[in-house]
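Long-time lurker, first post. I've been practising inverse folding by hand and with some scripts of my own, and I keep getting stuck on stretches where the structure tokens seem ambiguous. Below is the full token string for one chain I'm working on. Before anyone asks, I'm not after the true native sequence, just a reasonable design that respects the backbone. If someone could post their per-position residues I'd love to compare against what I wrote down in my notebook.
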């Protein structure tokens, strides 16, 4: 690993001032579980790392609002998040997904903001956060802005973040009766990188599916919504025929890619099956 300077600013403003959007040799580091591995392998060789470990300003807190909205600071570690009572009240599907998100050693170090900024499509949380309608709050020299998680990822390991912007928090809006589920297929252990991850969220109103969201990860270049599959379910009673139709729509529209976890044809079969499973689980919770 090449030598580098490590600076530890005490405030968010100081951290932002140290970032240079035109200099890729300057990089922020949160938990470092992905960045350090990339540095060791030579894929990334920054000359200066701006550590966010000492940054104050509430980006390491979890807050549950009176209306049920949940705000999670970017520096909250995944292991802390999975055990947070407020998370289990507001969005239990996130807590469940975190139990098999990598392994406990990684979750003890990895942060929520860092994992989202890394933009690896194999991460478990992005598809689920997309279905929950979550948004990230981003800070930069010009102030703050919010980005829907579904609009955050633009390509493999690429986001819409500028080089001098940082994720400071994630907000999950009140679900108001909506229930979500995340299912994944792994080639080996349950906490291994998934070959496919599918999330679904919906509400049941008089036996009819409403506010349907379905998202995919791992098998596609980025986590993304499957709007055709959503349309196949919205406003309908979720019986076996509708589940099969949604699975077929998802398999047809998802831009799946082949990798070491399986061929594109194999993954399309997985998509069809796992979309049905995710919808079935979410429907059971909502009903």
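-- Answer (accepted) --
I ran through it position by position. Result:
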């Amino acid at each position: 690993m090449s030598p580098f300077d490590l600076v530890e600013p005490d405030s968010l403003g100081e951290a932002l001032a140290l970032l240079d959007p035109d200099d890729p040799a300057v990089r922020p580091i949160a938990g470092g579980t992905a960045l350090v591995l990339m540095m060791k392998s030579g894929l990334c060789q920054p000359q200066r790392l701006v550590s966010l470990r000492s940054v104050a300003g509430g980006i390491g807190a979890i807050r549950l609002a009176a209306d049920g909205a949940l705000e999670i600071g970017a520096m909250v570690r995944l292991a802390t998040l999975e055990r947070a009572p407020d998370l289990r009240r507001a969005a239990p599907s996130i807590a469940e997904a975190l139990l098999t998100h990598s392994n406990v050693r990684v979750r003890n170090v990895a942060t929520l903001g860092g994992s989202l900024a890394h933009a690896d499509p194999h991460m478990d949380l992005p598809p689920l956060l997309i279905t929950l309608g979550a948004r990230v709050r981003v800070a930069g020299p010009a102030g703050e802005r919010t980005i829907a998680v579904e609009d955050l990822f633009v390509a493999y390991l690429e986001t819409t973040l500028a080089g001098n912007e940082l994720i400071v928090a994630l907000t999950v809006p009140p679900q108001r009766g909506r229930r979500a589920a995340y299912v994944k297929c792994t080639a080996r252990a349950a906490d291994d990188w998934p070959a496919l991850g599918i999330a679904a969220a919906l509400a049941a109103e008089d036996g009819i599916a409403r506010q349907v969201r379905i998202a995919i990860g791992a098998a596609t270049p980025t986590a993304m919504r499957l709007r055709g599959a959503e349309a196949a379910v919205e406003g309908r009673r979720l019986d076996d025929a509708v589940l099969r139709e949604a699975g077929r729509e998802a398999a047809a529209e998802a831009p799946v890619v082949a990798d070491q976890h399986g061929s594109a044809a194999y993954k399309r079969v997985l998509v069809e099956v796992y979309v049905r499973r995710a919808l079935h689980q979410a429907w059971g919770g909502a009903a």
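A couple of notes from the structure itself: Residues 49 and 111 are 16 Å apart (CA to CA). The mean pLDDT is 95. Happy to go over any region you disagree with.
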